[in-house]
Amino acid sequence: MIGPINNADRALILSFLLFLTALYLHLLFPMAIWAEGVLAIGEAALVGGAADWFAVTALFRKPLGFPYHTAILPRRRDGFIHAVTVMVQKEFFSRRKIFNHIEKMHLVPLLQTYLHRSETKEQTTNTVMHFLRGSLLRRNNGKMISYLSIRMKEIVLQEDAAGLIDRLVDVFHTNAWDRKAFVKLAGFLKKEAAAEETWHSIHDSLGRIEYEKIGGGFLSRLLEMTNTVNLNEGTDLIQRHICAALDELGTDGSPLQEQVLSLCRSYLLNLRRDDEILSLTRELQERIAGELPIEETLVRLFDEMRKHFERDRERHVNSIEEHMPELYTHLRRIIHVEYDHMRSLVEERPELQKIIAKILYDLLARSALHAQTLVGIIVGNVLSRLTDDELNRLIYDKVEEDFLWIRVNGSLIGGCIGGIIFICTRVIM
Q1: Which residues contact 254 (CB under 8 A, 6 or more apart)?
Q2: How many CA atoms lie within 13 A of 290 on its CB side?
Q3: Is 293 helix (H, G, I), strand (E, B) or coil?
């Protein structure tokens, strides 16, 4: 191959210089045996190096333009490509090697290790969320809407009235909705209690009470003159106590708030024993399931959601995460829980592991056998697209050092053989 001077080229040049030097010495000393021996060694080294250079070069191109049986690889590239393709298919991807390799693989432990990775969990979650978004983007969701409508009605009807009350109380308590409601209610009532109209209402009420108790005679005027009964101070005091009580009611964890919450919960739980309340609750359930336009509402809901999702998709925005962050977080939490449950089943049930291993082995074997033909096609196409120079370079680069040593060895071995022949000739003569 054409390139910078390498060790093989240096060895060939050295052999040529040795031959010229030996020839000069032989001409200078025609009767000297040592000069004749050096010439024989130089001749053999030069012939060996040149022959190996010609042989190596003839594999890839025409050395010195010699046309006969040279440039072997370019002339027989089709046969070479076919041989390489068959070798890859039959040797590297043979059925025996494929099945032997697959049998040595412990697929279930590999699967368990893969499932334990946090990246796998996140990828699975994102895939499921993508599927959910895709299902909401479909125009024809009739089956899903019908199923959801039937399920919602069944859930409403199958719920026990007493259990429904218990669940409402539990939901309000678990999510602290009752506490938040009292905080907002206390804030609203305090604002109303601190208003001037409230002060006047309290003052008028105290005035009426005073009149009802002691009348409007001498005693009333005497108490007013001596400031024994001061309605303004009483009104201020009552208003301040009301505001202070509402402040305590709106403070999370305060004794008054806890007492009020406990009383409300107890009262709501006692409603379970009221037959009239239970009957009304059951009637309400039946009317909700029968009269509410659940299916029509779901149709409009899905249609509006699809329009929003399509607009968000154009903006490359995650619709569920942006518009329904709590639902998005809850769905991801559910998927994470189910993922962990699935992973625990794979780890704890040997019968499930056997089924999974059988399926994986079958898939791998089928895929590998299909890849056997596919790899041959790919190798053939890739090699066919290479030019002669590219194909020569691809092969030569892999064995360049070996070719160089072949050429160097040609000069060395040629020189040694030339010396041996010269010695044997002189001994025989």
Answers
A1: 248
A2: 6
A3: coil
* pLDDT tens string 251-289: 888 888 888 888 887 877 777 777 787 788 788 888 888
Flag residues of the chain having pLDDT under 70: 1-3, 92-95, 98-99, 136-137, 210-231
Tokens for 232, please give them.
């303004």
- Tokens 């199958």 correspond to 158
Note the pLDDT tens digit of each residue in 52-95: 888 888 888 888 777 887 888 888 888 888 888 887 777 766 66
pLDDT of residue 218: 46
Instruction: Please give the model's pTM, rounded to 2 decimal places.
Output: 0.40
CA 327 from chain centre, in angstroms, equals 21
Token pair recorded at residue 257: 């708030």
Cα 319 to Cα 315: distance, rounded to the nearest angstrom: 10
- Residue at token pair 């009350």: 165
- Residue 22 to residue 28: CA distance in whole angstroms: 10
Helices (H), 315-387: 319-323, 325-348, 350-384
Residue where the block lists tokens 């959801």 = 148
**391/395 Cα distance (integer angstroms):** 6
Name the strand (E) or helix (H) holding 304: helix 294-314
Distance CA 52, CA 12 (A): 10
